[in-house]
Amino acid sequence: MTAVVKQTSSTWTVGEAPLLLLLKLRTFIALFAVVIFFSFAATNFLNIENLLIMSRHVALNAFLAIGMTFVIVAGGIDLSVGSVVGLSGMVAGGLILHGIPLGAYTLYLSVPMVIVAALAVGVAVGAINGLLITRLNVAPFIATLGTLYVARGAALLSSDGETFPNLAGNPAYGTTGFPLLGSASVLGVPLTVWLLAIIGVIAAYVAARTPLGRQIYAIGSNERAAQLSGVRVNRVKMIVYMFSGFCASIVGLIISSELVASHPMSGETFELNAIAAAVLGGTSMSGGRGKIGGTIVGAFVIGILSDGLVMMGVSAFWQTVVKGVVIIAAVVVDQIQRRVQHRFALQRQAASGG
């Protein structure tokens, strides 16, 4: 009887190991597939100029997805990031154009200070999300859905729904230079991509090599066990939501800088792209599992897919449908991978025990 079990296990291992490997590499396979497809289906897809434009778009998705990955790994969700994109851009635009009224005077901030102020807004929204979730025990979905509407409403109120145009700044007030954030290049590579590389490396290091990273994974895997082992769960959750807001603010600043204008509806539905990239990159919606590297590859898949469909002339409505299908497919494949890994572990345990 023991010999039969071993034989069954060995046969299953040989058959399932390649399947498990394919499931783990699904994001890279998807990236390779979309690149090959659009190389033939879209004219000039691999043109250098087009690749640089796509890299900027991918970077925007990746910033949001990196922050979203930490939130999801910790067992939460952040639906407010798209609205934070719009609000942060409006804060930057308002400060550059109108400054801060102080009675009979107006205080104009330098561009670095404007950037810091906009980033602070994103961190503040993240802190509000964290407080609602940790102190008032509001479900993450509901808390961030509420701040989604609040942040979007605040963005609209800041200008009565109008756009802040011409953010080139005024030399007399020392507010020039803002457009460089979204248009500058270093060694031929957009500054946005360099920023993504820096934040991506830091985020990957924090996730894989620091106590904070281990605590985030522990909370997502089993929050109660993490708390009993001494992890300050509420503090860690506050950090991940604040970081998510920080990443969203970066995107808001980059978009306003690229357009040299701020629009209150910027970032609408961007949270869908962030979730899709994170899940496609292997982040489990149940928490406790995910890698920054996989998320960035997932952002490339979503970004290339979106730009490729535009180049093919596919309707924006169909693009939304495709993104929804991608999210569903990614979650389904993730569940399949978890079941295969579980069966694989059980079979190996049975074989070693036999």
From TrEMBL:
Keywords: Cell inner membrane, Cell membrane, Membrane, Transmembrane, Transmembrane helix, Transport
A single cellular component GO annotation: plasma membrane
Topology class, membrane: Multi-pass membrane protein
Localization terms from the record: Cell membrane
Pfam family, one: BPD_transp_2
GO molecular function, one term: transmembrane transporter activity
Main subcellular location of this protein, as a coarse class: membrane
TM region positions: 28-46, 58-77, 83-100, 107-132, 138-157, 178-207, 238-256, 292-310
Signal peptide: none
InterPro entries: ABC_transp_permease
PANTHER family for this protein: ABC TRANSPORTER PERMEASE PROTEIN YPHD-RELATED (PTHR32196:SF21), ABC TRANSPORTER PERMEASE PROTEIN YPHD-RELATED-RELATED (PTHR32196)
The protein's name: ABC transporter permease
